[in-house]
Amino acid sequence: MIIFPDIEIQNGQSINRIRGKDNEPEVYKIHPLEAAKTFVDAGAKWLHVIDVDGSLQRERINYELICEIIDAVGIPVQVGGGIRTQSDVDWWLERGAARVVLGTAAVLDRLFIMEVCGRHPGKIVISITGKDGYAMIDGWRTKTSFTTLALAKLFENTGAAAIIYTDLDRFENGQEHGLASTIEIGTELSIPLISTGTVYTMDDVSTLALLPNIEGAIIGRALYQGELDLAKAIKVASTSWVAPELAEEGVAPKLEEVSGIPIKDIDHVGVCISDLKRSVRFYKMLGFAKEKDRGLTKDDRVIMRHGSGVAINLLSQEDRNHNYPSIALEVSSLSKTRAFLEYNDIDIADSYEDNAHQVVCIKDPDNNVIELNHYQ
Q1: Would you tell me which CATH number, out of the four given (3.40.50.1110, 3.20.20.70, 2.60.40.10, 3.40.50.1000), belongs to the domain 2-240?
Q2: So what CATH class is 263-331+346-375?
Q3: Model confidence, pTM
Q4: What does the pLDDT look like over 53-73, one tens digit per residue?
C-alpha cells in the first residue's frame, strides 16, 4: 500500500479543511515546499498535492508553487484542484505531474473521462467525495443525485488508474463510519481505491493495508500534527498484505482462490525480426505506426503502436536469449501481484522502477520472460 502525504494549498499555505468546510481551514506553519521536502526525507514515494483555491475557483491558482514542488522533490506527484479540461490535464502532465486527479469534471462528463483516460493511460485518478451517501462536487459544495458507490462503479472500465474516496460523514458520525464506507466501496470495485480521512494512528495504517483493493492512503493532518511517524507508516504499509489465514476469516479472498494476478491489459508484445524495413512495412499495413525508432541494438528496440493502443516491440534476433520480455502485461496492483507470486512460489527474475512505473519480471517453464507493469 502506498502512503500519499497530503499537501493542500490555499493562499500559498499548507492547510487542512476542517470538517470539510472551506471557510474554516486549519493553517499549518510549514510552507508547502518545505513540507514536501520533509516528506521526501522521511521516505515518501509519492506526494498528493491539491490546489484548494483552484478547486473552488475552477482554474489554476497555486500552479507556480506546485510546479516548484514537482521540480524539487524527485518523486511522483499526484496533482488535483480545478482541473476541468483536456488542456488542463495536458498542461499538468507536461509540467511533470505523474498523475492528475479529476473530481467535478469526472462527474459532469463521463465521455471526457473516457477520452482523457484513453489519451493518458495510467495517469488519471478520479476523486469521489461522499456526504449522506451521495457524491459531492464543486469543492464539496454541491450534492449530486449519484450515490458514491453507483458513481464509482461507472468509472471502473474507463481506464482510470484509481479512485480516491473521501467520506465527509466521518466528521459527524466518527472515523469508524469513514472506514466502513471505504471497506464497502473497496470490496465492490475492481478498480484500485485510495482512501482519505481514515488514518490517524499506526493501527489505522495496518488495518487499511490488510483490506482488499486498497492501493493507498492519503494522510495529512496526522502528519502535520506529529501524531504519525511517516517513515514508520511507510514501512508498515509496504510490508502488510492479506495473509491466507486472515482470508479464512473473511478479510479478503484466499490468494489461491484468486483467478491469477490482477491483470488490467496487455502492455505490449515482443516480436523478434530479421529485417527491420520489411517488418515495419508489414506492421504499417496492419495499422501500426512507429512510436520510437533508435534502431535494433542489444539495449534498444523499435516500438510500433496501433490506433487501438496495442503496442509491438520489434526486437533483433539476438534478443531470442530472453533478455527482453515476450509479453508485457499491465497489472492494477503490484503489491497484490507480488503477494500472489510469493504465495504460489513463483520466483521474481528481475524488478525495477522509475518515475512512471514499477516492474517485476517472471519466467514461464520455457524461460520466456513475462514483464508485469504497474503504472504510477
Answers
A1: 3.20.20.70
A2: alpha beta
A3: 0.64
A4: 888 877 788 999 999 999 999
